[in-house]
Design brief:
Strand content of chain B: under 5%
Strand content of chain A: under 5%
Low-confidence stretches of chain B: 1-7
Number of helices of chain A: 13
Largest sheet of chain A: none
Order of helices and strands of chain B: HHHHHHHHHHHHH
Helix content of chain A: 55-70%
Number of domains of chain A: 2
Number of helices of chain B: 13
CATH architecture of the largest domain in chain A: Orthogonal Bundle
CATH class of the largest domain in chain A: Mainly Alpha
Largest sheet of chain B: none
Largest interface: A-B, 66 and 77 residues
Oligomer: heterodimer
Distance between the termini of chain A: 37 Å
Low-confidence stretches of chain A: 1-19, 302-314
Structural class of chain A: mainly alpha
Radius of gyration of chain B: 25 Å
Mean pLDDT of chain A: 80
Mean pLDDT of chain B: 79
Number of strands of chain B: 0
Structural class of chain B: mainly alpha
Shape of chain A: elongated
């Protein structure tokens, strides 16, 4: 039963029904064509490449004790050695991929959970809305890293728990943004048509509303990916990551910090890689936001301007 | 399954006190409720799993069932969860927070000096950072699309992408180890002294936090100011021929106050999370560093207290920012 979606009065907004199919590809392509998008993607891809092919090209095993501690760079060890005399280059090449996988997984969890909660709250309204948004408020009362640490204190720093903790800490913010986006969409005629035809709420959310939320979801996913990388590498820096002998960019900075005077590369290189990665993903997201939503503001800034203070009427 | 498409607004009778006062009261009550729910989340997250405080104290080799049982009785872990929760919650108000599982010290005397140090750090960084961010954001908005706006927006985009510990490490490399040696790389305070006794030790953590929040608050402020400058009444003033300077001072700025307060609030909120990593990097003896230690050692009473303090700070800052913003927004004063 194909529901013919009537063109809405809004002029050629990217969310308009005509662009539905492959819309996300179109947005990505348009974003890459902007200078910011190209620069961001290039930076992120460079780091991605290092993280992915790194383990295959590393000259030494990452946890072999090979030389003196904090040795300066030499022909054999181009980036010198770390606090135990391990090859920094090999550890750098091996220490990125797990961070990336965890960040992507946490982003998927956060965006999926947040989008589901936000869309249901906006569409179902009434008591479900109140209940979901109350939960969102409670979770928003924790700084993200504090919430993640609280969950980690339950059973210790298991990698899957870190991913879940970071993902869940994203969910309330995603829910807020998508709730307000859904409120807009669910007022439109094609949603009402579907309602009159007796479609179930779940189907309306999935088939009628979701396709119109691709742009905000893409922007949210980009933002949350950047924050996931920041949070997960930050947690690793604090010692909540893989157990010690495993290489990890975040923890490398921590364990080699005391050796800064003798071999700064053991700290500088992983820190620079994390920085390039987050700058890359964030810049690319910025380009997506400009292309997809058509404003220069991020959703968080837009929310600030439109929802000042508490709701006066309920 | 009737889905109402129009939001019904109950009529607001004019009998009650000042509408603003009602909003403030409502906002506060709402904050207290949130905090109550937060306390439940904290308690449940730390206590519900089988690996309770007693096993954490005895460690992995504490499998002796009688020792475990005795310890559980001493810590009241054998009582129902709701009971334990009430004991804990009332302890929060009476200052009886139990003892650290790591060293047996009372939680309050362990955390109190750190709380003071963190407060100093947050206050100094928050005031400097938010003022700087607000000023830069306002200037960028007024000179929208000028070179300053472009440069600052690119720089801000780059800096907001950086994790705090990368900024901190960058500063350590620049100012205290590899390039120059002007500031101490660690902020180890002599025992028994507070942060203000050795000001040079808070410079680097503070600078890190300022660098992190300035672009964040700047971007928000710029957006709010642009919104305000693009509004109908500013347009109207322009059409009337009001001089641009007067438009900014009389029409745009006052209407940007509410968002500015929100922005400053957001800056402080950011700091509540930011101190965790930054204090750890610099070995600054604050609650953030203690939280990391406590999570590492599964020191549950300490974790519970620090998390609830940070959440309370969060909720409190939100209420204050909202109330001030409410007072500063004229249209909110009219009952709807």
């Amino acid at each position: 039963m194909a529901v013919d979606t009537p063109a809405t009065s809004r002029p050629a907004r990217p969310g308009a029904p005509g662009l539905r199919r492959h819309q996300w590809m179109a947005v990505l392509r348009a974003a890459v064509r902007t200078p910011r998008g190209a620069a961001g993607l290039a930076l992120a891809s460079l780091v991605l490449l290092i993280a992915i092919i790194g383990p295959a090209v590393a000259p030494h095993p990452p946890d072999a004790l090979l030389t003196t501690e904090f040795a300066k760079p030499s022909g054999q060890f181009p980036l010198g050695s770390d606090f135990l005399g391990r090859d920094v280059l090999s550890r750098v090449l091996n220490g990125g991929w797990i961070l990336l996988i965890m960040a992507v997984a946490a982003t998927v969890i956060g965006v999926a959970a947040g989008a589901t909660a936000g869309m249901s709250a906006a569409y179902l309204r009434g008591r479900s809305d109140g209940l979901i948004m109350r939960g969102v408020d409670v979770l928003l009362a924790f700084p993200q890293i504090v919430f993640a640490l609280l969950l980690l204190s339950m059973i210790g720093p298991k990698l899957w728990l870190i991913v879940i903790a970071v993902g869940v800490s994203h969910a309330p913010q995603v829910a807020r943004v998508l709730r307000s986006a859904t409120l807009d969409v669910s007022e439109r005629d094609f949603v009402k048509v579907a309602e009159l035809q007796g479609m179930s709420p779940a189907k309306i959310l999935g088939k009628e509303i979701l396709p119109n939320l691709i742009s905000p979801i893409m922007v949210e996913a980009g933002l949350r990916l950047t924050y996931s990388i920041i949070l997960i590498s930050g947690l690793a820096f604090l010692g909540f990551g893989q157990p010690p002998p495993a290489p990890n960019w975040g923890y490398m900075i921590n364990e080699n910090q005391i050796g800064l005077p003798s071999n700064p590369w053991a700290v500088v290189v992983p820190a620079a890689l994390i920085a390039l990665l987050t700058i890359g993903t964030n810049t690319f997201t910025d380009a997506i936001a400009r292309v997809a939503i058509g404003v220069e503001r991020r959703p968080e800034e837009a929310a600030l301007v439109t929802d000042l203070g508490p709701e006066t009427a309920e | 399954m009737a889905v109402t498409t129009t939001r019904a607004r109950p009529e607001t009778p004019r009998r009650v006190a000042h509408p603003l006062l009602r909003l403030v009261r409502r906002r506060t009550a709402f904050g207290v409720l949130t905090l109550f729910l937060v306390s439940i989340v904290v308690f449940v997250a730390t206590e519900i799993l089988p690996g309770n405080a007693a096993t954490a104290i005895l460690g992995r080799n504490g499998t002796n069932p009688t020792r475990l049982h005795n310890l559980e009785i001493r810590l009241h872990l054998n009582r129902p969860l709701v009971d334990q929760y009430w004991t804990w919650l009332s302890g929060l108000f009476t200052g009886n927070l139990g003892r650290s599982l790591a060293n047996g010290q009372p939680v309050w005397s362990l955390v109190e000096p750190r709380l003071v140090n963190s407060a100093v750090l947050v206050l100094v960084a928050g005031v400097i950072g938010s003022l700087l961010g607000v000023a830069l954001g306002a200037v960028a908005a007024l000179r929208k699309d000028g070179w300053l706006d472009h440069v600052s927006s690119v720089v801000a985009l780059g800096v907001t992408s950086l994790p705090e510990f990368v900024v901190a490490i960058g500063l350590i490399i620049l100012l205290s180890t590899t390039v120059w040696h002007v500031l101490p790389a660690v902020s180890l305070l002599p025992p028994g002294t507070y942060a203000w006794d050795s000001p040079q030790l808070i410079v680097l953590p503070c600078l890190t936090l300022v660098i992190v929040i300035v672009p964040y608050t700047m971007r928000m402020m710029r957006a709010a100011m642009i919104e305000s400058l693009g509004s109908d009444y500013v347009e109207m003033a322009r059409l009337k021929g009001v001089p641009e300077r007067r438009i900014v001072a009389v029409h745009a700025l006052p209407n940007a106050i509410a968002p500015t307060i929100q922005v400053i609030g957001l800056g402080f909120l950011y700091l509540a999370g930011g101190i965790v990593v930054v204090e750890y990097v610099f070995n600054f003896p604050g609650v953030g560093q203690e939280l990391v230690y406590a999570v590492n050692g599964r020191d549950i009473p300490v974790i519970q207290f620090i998390v609830i303090v940070l959440a309370a700070f969060y909720v409190f800052v939100n209420i204050i920012a909202d109330v001030i913003a409410l007072l500063a927004t004229p249209r909110r004063r009219i009952p709807r």
